Amino acid sequence: MPRSAPTPCRHPACALVLDKPGYCDQHRTQVHRDYGRARRGFDAEVGFYQSVRWREVRAAFLREHPLCVACKATGLVVAAKVADHIRPLKDGGERFDWVNLQGLCVSCHNRKTARETARRS
Questions:
Q1: pTM tops 0.70, yes or no
Q2: Is 80 helix (H, G, I), strand (E, B) or coil?
Q3: Going by C-beta distance under 8 Å and a sequence separation of 6 or more, which residues neighbour residue 18?
């Protein structure tokens, strides 16, 4: 099996030569750290979803509403894992009001979020 040619680290100022394309050990951790920082800053609501109050509200809501409402509407019985905001926070939805919450399974929540994101674009 042929071996690939040595390539330099992808970091702009690094001259270290690697067996495989990518970053050297020192710059790999830096790039991953920077990516994580950029990702956390991408969505202003990330901090809200990590708050103690939200976690308590979410847990209480899911105890009271344990089934996915979207699956239940189609006759399936699937456990809800996500307390979803019916009207998204980005569209002015209430954060802690149970009237604005619904229990969804992960796949239904991802589908709903994708539709909302596409509509916003």
A1: no
A2: coil
A3: 6, 7, 8, 9, 24
